[in-house]
Amino acid sequence: MKTAWGVAMMGGKSGHLGVIVVGLLLCVTAAQASTDPAASEPSLARQQQLIRMVRQDCGSCHGMRLTGGLGPALTQQALADKPLDSLVATVHAGRPGTPMPPWSALLSYEEAAWIVKRLQTGFPEEVERGR
Asked: Does the pLDDT at position 80 exceed 70?
């Protein structure tokens, strides 16, 4: 039995079909990798940086306990029914016309998504250095 790669390498009509099949397989694999939550998980060191950023920088407007301040509360209860994509877009791109700034200069879209997912499930406390 010939593999798709082998058919692709032989040329002719079968070769063209093989190239298409191989291309489709690569697209499916790439799509699966981009939606795999583990694939976009920041390193443990970066996670600690993100936790500190949220507690310190976001906390300056949303309250140091994230229970609200100038900005709304970022608690699990407050965000439970909010669409993930909308919250990630708000973190990454900000909200024009409001004090919410874009964080895209400091965060990738995947990191913004990681933060929002943690906020929706109860945000972790900062780990003190030296422990």
From this structure: yes
Q: Quote the pTM value.
A: 0.68
SS3 70: coil
Q: What is the SS3 assignment for the chain? A: CCCHHHHHHHCHHHHHHHHHHHHHHHHHHHHHHHHCHHHHCCCHHHHHHHHHHHHHHHHHHHCCCCCCCCCCCCCHHHHCCCCHHHHHHHHHHCCCCCCCCCCCCCCCHHHHHHHHHHHHHCCCCCCCCCC
CA distance 77 to 89: 20
| Average pLDDT of the chain to the nearest whole number | 80
